[in-house]
Amino acid sequence: MESNWRFVFVNFSIIAPLILFGYFQEIVTQSNILLINEEKEVLIRWESMITYTFFCFVTITTTCFIINIFAGNKSRLLIPSISSDHVAASFLMTSALILTNLSLEYVPYAAKILIKSCRPIPVFLATLFVSKERHAILKIFSVILLLIGILVYMRDESGAFNNSALFGNTMLFISICLDGLAAVFFERIRKNFEEKDDKRNFLVNTLELVTSVNLIAIFFCIPALFINNDVIKAVNFISLQPEITIPILTSTFTYALGQIAIGASYLQFGTLSTSMAQTLRIMITLLGTVYLFHDPFSHLQMIGTSFMLLGILCNFAQSFRTKNIVESSHQNGVWGKCLGKKSGLEDLESLPLVDSDYSSDTGTSTLY
């Protein structure tokens, strides 16, 4: 039961900050300045999304250091552990985030979050075929329901697909593919934590992972700042409209909190369950815009949303079910040893299609 509550808490910690992040990020991307030059009006928009991505990485790393100091582990994070898996995951994550943020210059925010809601699909395929992870049948069914829901949602009442900017959609498609590849390396990092039999606090493990990946991402992002003078445009825009610093700082800070929760979810529950939680956040954001801003919501979109919700619920149901089986089998294993019987954990290993998302919660896990 305690582990189930931990699952709920971690998912809430992902969803709540990232909803706020989406709101404040929209304020940043929609900011503009009207300049009058030689009797000619020029509208300047915020277009420095690479610099904005750099701000995100710096804020995440700084937030991790601050939390670590207050947690009394100041000496631990001074030298984060960095491996080839950290570097690969960081490079893929950085590329995906830059492409995602750049796409906002070509597609509206609603289109961006809708396409990003497909993230569990490449994550599922990458962990299945590249990492050779085995997923429960209900997990596979949940991904299929999610795919059906997204396809239905993206169709309007006439049956034609919405024609968003091709370039922006292409960047988003590449970004979710990179997310799927990054999931492979995050799974390797999670398994390394398990194999180390590490007795440290779970918060320290999470902060170490998030700090390592984002610290590397800062160095990957620095050369990109000078592409098309992105950082210079950002400085000029902020100097002309200094009040934009408030939504920038607020959005990057809420994003940092969400990323720390995502790191905790990666280590505790795996990448597929984490991507499902992010998709749930996207759905809440979409429904929130419909309610708050009275955006149109067709019958097909309602049906698509229902399929997506059903897929997410199936994923969470399987996660809770697997968790209870593991805990029950662990208890039975202890009594089995006392009675000279076969351990419950040994019985569990013979079950088909064990949910890989909870493989870290077996008796050998020390991530708590």
UniProtKB/TrEMBL annotation:
Belongs to the nucleotide-sugar transporter family. SLC35B subfamily. GO terms for molecular function: transmembrane transporter activity. Its main location: membrane. This is Sugar phosphate transporter domain-containing protein. It comes from the Eukaryota. InterPro entries: SCL35B1-4/HUT1. The keyword Membrane applies. It is a multi-pass membrane protein. GO terms for cellular component: endoplasmic reticulum membrane; Golgi membrane. The chain crosses the membrane at residues 6-28, 49-71, 136-154, 166-186, 207-226, 246-267, 279-294, 300-317.
